[in-house]
């Protein structure tokens, strides 16, 4: 057998990559086989072929669960990007145009900022199926690590190193209170004032909460959080009910919430809200189209 034939026989294949990625994502060989529509031995052969060729253990077994080894973990984003790009090519060849169909998985932490962007994209690309989930920033980042999300709207001080993205809005973190609250007439409240308040906050994985509590620690304040909730809508409802005051980004407070924003006398309480994606996924057609659409509205 000549060298060319030998290289062709041993070439890394998309079938192998699909099998490997599916095993990691589903956590088992049988689930991967069911998803792809082949036998479990076929999946095992693809994985064993890769491990044998490169003399590297790619999967680790723990009981009935299978996960990526450190050697594979760093390669997964690029493997998933390759598979997504191949999917784009198949779609374009089948439908004779890009974005004729497909899907985009989006996670957002602040619906007031994300939904207008998502709605605009949907109106421009009606054939793209959108799966949008409301989550805290930390949970969105976890989904990126697991390859379960394509676009994220997150709050933080900067874009995480493993992601790419752009700034959507820069806004202060404020007290949200009813218009008749005693502090509503003050220009700013101090950390001493905050220490006396019953606070309603997002869950501990929220980017807004992390920034607020880090600043409180530096200021020597111990905020009294009486309730942690999963959405701004729930917080706004309880604020109107008199349960307490909320901690929020000023940009997410609207007139219909029935709340006013009260500034906190601390210049470090600034949140940056970003749209982010995996660097290796930037050229996938649906992700690229979404990135372009951000500048249309």
UniProtKB/TrEMBL annotation:
Annotated HTH lysR-type domain residues:
12-69
Does the keyword section mention Plastid?
A: no
For this UniProt entry, which residues form the secretion signal?
none
Q: Does the keyword DNA-binding apply?
A: yes
UniProt xrefs under InterPro entries: LysR_HTH_N, LysR_subst-bd, WH-like_DNA-bd_sf, WH_DNA-bd_sf
Keyword terms, alphabetized: DNA-binding, Transcription, Transcription regulation
Kindly give the Pfam families that the UniProt entry links to this protein. HTH_1 (PF00126), LysR_substrate (PF03466)
Entry-linked Gene3D superfamilies: 3.40.190.290, Winged helix-like DNA-binding domain superfamily/Winged helix DNA-binding domain
Its family? Belongs to the LysR transcriptional regulatory family.
The name this protein goes by in its record: LysR family transcriptional regulator
């Amino acid at each position: 057998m000549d060298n060319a034939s030998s290289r062709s026989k041993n070439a890394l294949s998309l079938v192998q990559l699909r099998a490997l990625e599916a095993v990691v994502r589903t956590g088992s060989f049988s689930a991967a086989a069911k998803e792809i529509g082949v036998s479990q031995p076929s999946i095992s052969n693809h994985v064993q072929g890769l491990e044998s060729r490169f003399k590297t253990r790619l999967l680790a077994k723990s009981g009935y669960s299978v996960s990526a080894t450190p050697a594979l973990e760093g390669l997964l984003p690029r493997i998933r990007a390759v598979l997504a790009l191949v999917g784009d090519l198949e779609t374009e060849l089948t439908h004779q145009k890009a974005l004729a169909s497909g899907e985009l998985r989006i996670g957002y932490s602040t619906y007031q900022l994300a939904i207008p962007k998502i709605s605009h994209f949907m109106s421009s690309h009606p054939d793209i199926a959108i799966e949008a989930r409301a989550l805290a920033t930390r949970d969105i980042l976890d989904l990126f690590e697991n390859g379960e999300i394509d676009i994220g709207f997150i709050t933080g001080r900067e874009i995480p190193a493993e992601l790419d993205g752009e700034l959507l809005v820069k806004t202060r973190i404020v007290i949200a209170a009813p218009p008749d609250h005693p502090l509503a007439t003050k220009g700013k409240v101090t950390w001493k004032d905050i220490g006396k308040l019953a606070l309603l906050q997002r869950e501990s994985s929220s980017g807004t909460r992390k920034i607020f509590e880090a600043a409180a620690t530096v200021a020597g304040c111990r905020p009294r959080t009486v309730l942690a909730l999963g959405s701004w809508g729930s917080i706004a409802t309880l604020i109107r009910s008199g349960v307490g005051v909320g901690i929020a980004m000023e940009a997410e407070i609207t007139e219909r919430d029935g709340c006013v924003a009260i500034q906190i006398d601390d210049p470090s309480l600034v949140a940056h809200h970003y749209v982010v994606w995996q660097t290796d996924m930037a050229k996938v057609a649906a992700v690229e189209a979404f990135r372009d659409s951000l500048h249309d509205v």
